[in-house]
Design goal:
- There is one protein chain.
- The chain contains two helices and no strands.
- The protein is mainly alpha-helical.
- The protein has a domain at 20-48.
- α1 crosses α2.
- The chain is elongated.
Length: 48
C-alpha cells in the first residue's frame, strides 16, 4: 500500500502504467487529497 505522503514520487509510474497524461494523474491525486481534507472535520466529529 502506498502511504499518502509518498504519492509524489510514484505519480510518473502510475501515469505510465495507466498510459495517462501526468497532468491527469496529478489532478486525480489533488482531487483525492482535497476531498480527504474536507472529510477530516466531519469524520473527526463523528468518531467522538
Amino acid at each position: 500500500m502506498i502511504d499518502r505522503f509518498a504519492v509524489a514520487p510514484v505519480l510518473i509510474p502510475i501515469a505510465l502504467e495507466f498510459r495517462a497524461p501526468l497532468g491527469a494523474v496529478a489532478i486525480a491525486a489533488t482531487t483525492y487529497y482535497f476531498a480527504y481534507g474536507l472529510a477530516q472535520p466531519f469524520w473527526g466529529f463523528a468518531s467522538d
